[in-house]
Write a structure and sequence with these properties.
Elements: E1 5-9, E2 13-17, E3 32-39, E4 46-52, E5 70-71, E6 79-80, E7 88-91, H1 93-98, H2 104-108, E8 114-118, E9 124-128, E10 137-141, E11 144-145, E12 165-170, H3 174-177, E13 184-189, E14 199-207, E15 211-222, E16 225-236, E17 245-258, E18 262-276, E19 281-284, E20 287-288, E21 303-320, E22 323-339, E23 357-377, E24 380-403, E25 407-409, E26 412-418, E27 427-451, E28 454-471, E29 477-498, E30 501-514, E31 519-523, E32 526-530, E33 535-548, E34 551-570, E35 576-596, E36 599-614, E37 634-645, E38 648-657, E39 660-661, E40 671-672, E41 675-686, E42 689-696, E43 704-707, E44 713-716, E45 721-729
Parallel strand pairs: 10-13
Antiparallel strand pairs: 1-2, 1-3, 3-4, 5-6, 7-12, 8-9, 10-11, 12-13, 14-15, 14-45, 15-16, 16-17, 17-18, 18-21, 19-20, 19-44, 21-22, 22-23, 23-24, 24-27, 25-26, 27-28, 28-29, 29-30, 30-33, 31-32, 33-34, 34-35, 35-36, 36-37, 37-38, 38-41, 39-40, 41-42, 42-45, 43-44
């Protein structure tokens, strides 16, 4: 079968994809016993054992399967999804491409319990289990964290058209990844898979709102190595007036085996974004006030311009039988110029549009070394890993101040009512320069032990972080030195095993942490250090996972508590206050997948109960017990890939997000109504050509997808959108 992924694990680790006739070749393999894993999207996984020498011929049969079978994001090692004691969702490349995915919402709509939003044409959000900060879910690109020094992942820089596959692991994962993995880990793969011959594709796309895109990828193999890469360019006028956006990205990878025991790999990712900002929407009684989605009352020139360079090197050395030493080193340069100036609020308040500027240059260096030991003996399987991580980061930022800005009162947000002769941005004042640095050293251990039908995971990580923040407008330096332990305990038991039918019971207790960004709050023109305690997230989860031939289902119950989470809110025109808050979220997440007669079907449902346990912004206010802002109780979805004809695929989809409070720091918050989004796509394959016509938000629902800075305003979701993509493969 073509395009089957072959992985060998033993004295060395190798992988390759079969050619047109289902054949593959791997050279320079040292003698020893190997576990051969064969997998392909939409099919079951087959594992065999081979010993070299002598050479062996393995004949295997793979059958259709409704779900991906292996995942590497859970513990940085490849492991079967069925016997993983954590909740995992995988979105394969075929599902991404055949639905004409153009946004994160399109890519991840089949993952349970997610909510999406974008703030003024930048800063995309992915919320899960009541956590809406981009620092709550760790984002990986081809194994490398995409995060700023404060832990936030600027998803604006991730090229969606270049995504090949996605893995999403729910729950804290700090025992494997350290900080900023308190709500889960999602990994995006951008490098095309290895094949035994030169392959590639080239695509073009057109869509509503003046969207234009070009994308392509290629993989060039040779003896013991290959060169692969992908590139994309995207331009859009935006659905709001004056919100044009241009983005370009390149991802390159080269790898080479040396002497049979050493495998070298290098990656380079470049991403550049230039986007104009769109204004937010004032809300009254949970509904838009006067403003249409297309209206933009933001200050002209408000924008987001950034570029990112990420260079990664990886080396895997087979030091002895069953022992492998790996090191991954990454250097990242992130240069960003961003402005505010998009705020408008409902009457009767007269407010400025909140213009601000920040010019930021950030450098990070990450080195992660792992020693792994894998041993397989009949009913016993042991996978042990020990690792050390060092992370260094430096950020320089320049932010000018602005005063006496004009104020505006709706519904006319273009005519100022005070300071009418001043620049809409205000009068530029002195520039504040800040220098932020951090060092993090980490040690971690994990043992995955399987005995017959029982599997266990024990993991522990120790992190020590040293952070400081120095600003030119104050002699106060904010510093923090702390350490944290992050445990992970999990189990899985095969309760039923009959042929291709398996019922697995699994559970876990995990703990994650995130060091807070050292803050200097401004209260009444006085700079006050805010040395907030590092937040800690504790999660207990248990569930069932069922696979029977072409059917897959899993359901989990979780109870998660986030202690000392950072909350910031505006306490005056120029004043911000930062406090710690404790929240608790529990609920159920379920999904079902099936593969029947060539059709792939999916559905999911999540019920979340998210509340503040302790939240006292001031001595006179207490919002403990209030539901968390923007946290719906119910989220559901359904869809599939229906093969209507040999070369024709129809992909319908429906996603529902329930009602949710706009804020949680007022007595009677506005309640945003629920919304349902309909989507569909048709993919037609003719020889090497694929044409995809897709539509999203087909009912053209006007809905609020995200809040904005704890104010009575929100960010609109994308209106009805149609697109066409054409791809050619060789």
């Amino acid at each position: 079968m073509p395009d089957a992924h072959i992985e060998l694990t033993g004295p060395v680790r190798r992988d390759v994809v079969t050619g047109i006739e289902g054949r593959f070749q791997l050279d320079a393999l040292p003698d020893g016993t190997y576990r051969v894993t064969v997998r392909r999207d939409g099919f079951s996984v087959v594992e065999r054992t081979a010993t070299l020498p002598p050479s062996q011929t393995l004949d295997v049969t793979i059958e259709p399967s409704p779900v991906a079978t292996h995942v590497e994001t859970v513990s940085k090692t490849d492991e079967p999804v069925l016997w993983t004691p954590f909740r995992v969702s995988v979105v394969p490349h075929d599902a991404i491409e055949k639905t004409g995915a153009n946004s994160f919402e399109d890519v991840l709509r089949s993952v349970p319990g997610l909510q999406f939003g974008t703030q003024g044409n930048a800063y995309p959000h992915i919320s899960t289990r009541g956590l809406r900060d981009t620092a709550d879910v760790l984002t990986l690109i081809d194994g490398v964290p995409l995060r700023q020094l404060n832990g936030s992942a600027d998803l604006t820089m991730l090229p969606v058209p270049a995504i090949q596959e996605v893995e999403f692991v729910k729950g804290p994962a700090s025992s494997a990844y350290g900080r900023s993995a308190v709500g889960g880990v999602m990994q995006f793969f951008t490098v095309p898979p290895a094949r035994s011959r030169f392959t590639g594709d080239l695509g073009f796309g057109l869509a509503s709102f003046g969207d234009r895109e070009t994308m392509g990828s290629a993989s060039v193999p040779w003896n013991g190595g290959r060169l692969a890469g992908s590139a994309m360019w995207q331009s859009s006028d935006g659905f709001q007036r004056g919100t044009g956006r241009d983005m370009g990205a390149v991802s390159l990878m080269g790898e080479q085996s040396v002497g049979g025991r050493l495998h070298l790999r290098g990656n380079y990712l470049f991403s550049d974004v230039e986007a104009q900002r769109g204004s937010i929407v004032p809300l009254v009684n949970g509904r838009p006030y006067v403003v249409n989605r297309e209206d933009n009352y933001g200050i002209p020139g408000a924008r987001f311009d950034a570029d990112m360079h990420s260079v990664t090197g990886r080396a895997d050395l087979a030091v002895a039988r069953e022992w492998t030493l790996s090191n991954t080193t990454n250097f990242n340069r992130y240069d960003r110029f961003a402005t505010g100036g998009i705020t408008i609020l409902p009457p009767s308040s007269a407010v400025s549009k909140g213009y601000s500027e920040s010019n930021t240059v950030q450098d990070t260096l990450l080195s992660d070394s792992i020693l792994t030991w894998s041993r397989n003996r009949e009913r016993l399987r042991s996978d042990f890993l020990a690792g050390f991580t060092y992370e260094w980061g430096s950020q320089d930022q320049a932010s000018p101040s602005f005063r006496n800005a004009p104020t505006y009162r709706g519904p006319n947000w273009n005519t100022p009512v005070s300071n009418v002769n001043n620049d809409p941005r205000g009068i530029r004042g002195a520039t504040t320069y800040s220098d932020f640095g951090q060092d993090i050293a980490s040690f971690y251990l994990q043992e995955r032990l399987g005995w017959g039908r029982l599997g266990t995971v024990l993991g522990l990580r120790w992190d020590r972080f040293d952070q400081f923040l120095n600003r030119s407008d104050t002699s106060v330096v904010s510093t923090i030195i702390k350490s944290r332990l992050s445990p992970r305990v999990g189990f899985d038991v095969v309760a039923l095993e009959r042929g291709r039918t398996n019922l697995v019971i699994f559970g876990n207790y995990v703990q994650g942490f995130r060091p807070q960004f050292p803050a200097l709050s401004q209260q009444g023109s006085i700079i006050i250090p805010q040395l907030l305690r590092p937040e800690v997230t504790r999660s207990l989860e248990g569930g069932l996972r069922f696979v029977s031939g072409r059917f897959f289902a899993q359901s989990t119950y979780f109870d998660m508590k986030k202690i000392d989470g950072q909350r910031s809110f505006r306490s005056g025109p120029e004043d911000f206050t930062f406090v710690n808050a404790t929240t608790r979220v529990n609920g159920v997440e379920s999904e079902f997948r099936a593969r029947l007669l060539g059709h792939t079907l999916w559905s999911h449902y999540a019920h979340h109960n998210a509340r503040n346990i302790e939240f006292r912004p001031a001595l006179t206010s207490d919002f403990s017990g209030y539901p968390l802002r923007m946290a719906p109780k119910n989220i559901a979805g359904a869809g599939g890939l229906l093969h209507l004809w040999k070369s024709l695929t129809f992909s319908p989809g429906v996603n529902y997000v329930g009602s949710r409070p706009l804020r949680d720091n007022v007595v009677n918050p506005q309640i945003l109504p629920s919304y349902t989004l309909l989507s569909s796509a048709v993919a037609f394959d003719l020889w090497r050509l694929r044409v995809v016509v897709s539509g999203t938000n087909l009912s053209d629902r006007y809905y609020i997808a995200d809040d904005f800075s704890s104010q009575d305003a929100g960010c609109p979701g994308t209106p009805r959108r149609f697109s066409v993509q054409v791809r050619y493969r060789w």
